[in-house]
Amino acid sequence: MAEQQALTDHTVFLISSLAGGGAEGVCANLASGLAEQGMPLELVVLHMHNSVYHQNLSDKVCLSVLGVDQARYAFGPLIRHLNRARPARLVVFNYELAHLMVLIRPFLRFQFRLMARNINTFSANALTSGSWLQRWVVNPLQRFLYSRLDHVVNQCQAMRADLLAHVPIAAERTSVIYNPVNQRIEAAAALTEPAAQQPGYVLCVGRFERQKAFHRAIEAFSLVHAQYPELRLRFIGQGSQETMLRAQAHQLGLGGKVDFMGFAADTTVHYLEARCVLLTSLYEGFPNVLVEAITLGVPVVSVDCASGPAEIVRPEQNGVLLSGHSSDAIAHGLIQCLSRTWPGHQVKQSAEPYSNNRILADWAALLADNGLDLRQATEQTQG
Question: Is the Cβ–Cβ distance between 301 and 320 less than 8 Å?
C-alpha cells in the first residue's frame, strides 16, 4: 500500500498489524474515533498480513504500511518514515515496538512525545519466565526501556498498580483510560436486546492460547451440562490450542455440545444469543469481551484474574465474579448466573464508563498534552 502524504502536527499510532486481536481492534477503534473528531492522525503498521480491522478504519485515518514482517526489521524503515512524517506525538500499542521506539528516538531529527498503551499486566507478560537469561538480562532491560517512555496509558487501575510495582517510572507519567467498547457493538446495543432464548449457550471469546485457559471452560461446562442438558458451549476465536481443546471436549463426551465457530470480525450476533459470557483467563490486560457483553445487556461470569474483571463485573448488576479459579468454582458461578434473570437495561447501565464518547474525550485530552486527571480516572473506575 502506498504511503500517504505526511500530516502537520499530527499524532501517530504505531502497531505491528491490524490482524484480529484485542489490541489491534482497540487501536483501529481509537484511531477512527479520534480522526472523525478532527484530530490529524496517522496509523503506521509494519505489515498487512491477515489484516481484518483495516476494513473498519475511517477514511479520515492516514494509513501507512512499512512492509516489514517483524519489529526486529523495522529499525531502519521506522527511522526513515518518522523523519519524513515528524509527528508531534507517537503512541505505541505493544511492548516490543515500545522498546524499539525508545532505541530509535536518538536517531530521529525532531522532538516528539513518546507514549505507550500498556496492553497487558506487565508482571504476567514480561516477568514470569524461569529462564536465567530472561530473568537477569532481558527483563531488566525491558523495565529500563519502558521507563524511558514519556507516558504510559493503562487500561485499568490494577494494571497501573502492577506497572508501578515493576517498572521504575514516576506515577505522574502514567494514567488510566479504559478501552472503549467496539463502535459496532455500541451501535447494536442501542437498537437490540439479548434474545435470552432457552436453551442458549455459554459464550467464550478470545485466542486459543494458554493465557485464556479455555480448558477450564470445557471442564466447568462438563459439570454444568448435567443440570442444563440442552445448554451448549460456544467458542469464538482461533489459536494454537484449538486441536487440544477439541480433543478435550470429545474426551469428556461433549463433542456434540461444544461449538468452535472460528474467528468473527463481528461478534454481535453471538453475544445477543448467549445466555452468558464466560472468561477463564489466567491474566488479562483489560478484558474487552466482558465490556462488549455487558454493553449488549448480556451477563458475564469471570474469574477474578489480574487485571480488569474486578473493575468491570458488578455482582447483582451484571454478572458473577468468582473468588476461585477451579473448574468447580467456575461451574458454581455458571449455575448461579444461569439460574436467575438479569434485566438487560440493568446490565447495559453498568457499561456506561466504557462508552466511546467518554473514552475518546480522555484520549483527546491526553494527546492534546493536557494530560489526564488521574482522580477522574479513578472515579470512573470506582463508579
Answer: yes
For 198, residues 6+ apart whose C-beta sits below 8 A from its C-beta are 230
Alpha-carbon Rg of the chain, whole angstroms? 21
Overall pTM > 0.85? no
Report residue 357 as a C-alpha cell: 464518547
Compute the Cα dihedral for 311, 57, 364, 172 and give only its sign. Answer: positive
- Chain center to CA of 278: 16
338 membership: H or E segment, kind and range: helix 327-338
| Secondary structure (DSSP) of 344-378 | HHHHHHTTGGG-HHHHHHHHHHHHTT----HHHHH
Answer for the pair 97, 71: CB distance below 8 angstroms, yes or no. yes
CB atoms near residue 136 (< 10 Å): 10
Give the number of other Cβ atoms within 10 Å of residue 183's Cβ: 16
Query: What are the CA-CA distances from residue 160 to residues 82, 86, 171, 342, 366 (Å)?
Result: 29, 29, 9, 31, 16
Task: Give the pLDDT score at 383.
Answer: 41
Taking a C-beta distance cutoff of 8 angstroms, is the pair 147, 168 a contact? Answer: yes
**Cell numbers of 130, please?**
524461569
Least confident range from 140-149, 197-206, 308-317: namely 197-206
Question: Distance between CA atoms of 364 and 348, rounded to whole angstroms?
Answer: 25
pLDDT, tens digit, for every residue of 228-285?
999 999 999 999 999 999 999 999 999 899 999 999 988 999 999 999 999 999 988 8
Q: Max CA-CA distance within the chain?
A: 66
End-to-end CA distance of the chain, in Å?
44
Q: Under the phi-then-psi rule, with left for phi > 0, alpha for psi from -120 to 50, and beta for the rest, what region is 255?
A: alpha
State how far Cα 58 lies from the chain centre.
20
Rounded Cα–Cα distance for residues 285 and 124 (Å): 9
Model confidence at 125, pLDDT cuts 50, 70, 90, reads: low
Task: Quote the cell numbers at residue 110.
Answer: 525532531
- pLDDT of 163 strictly over 80: yes
Contact between 123 and 165 under an 8 Å Cβ cutoff? The reply is: yes
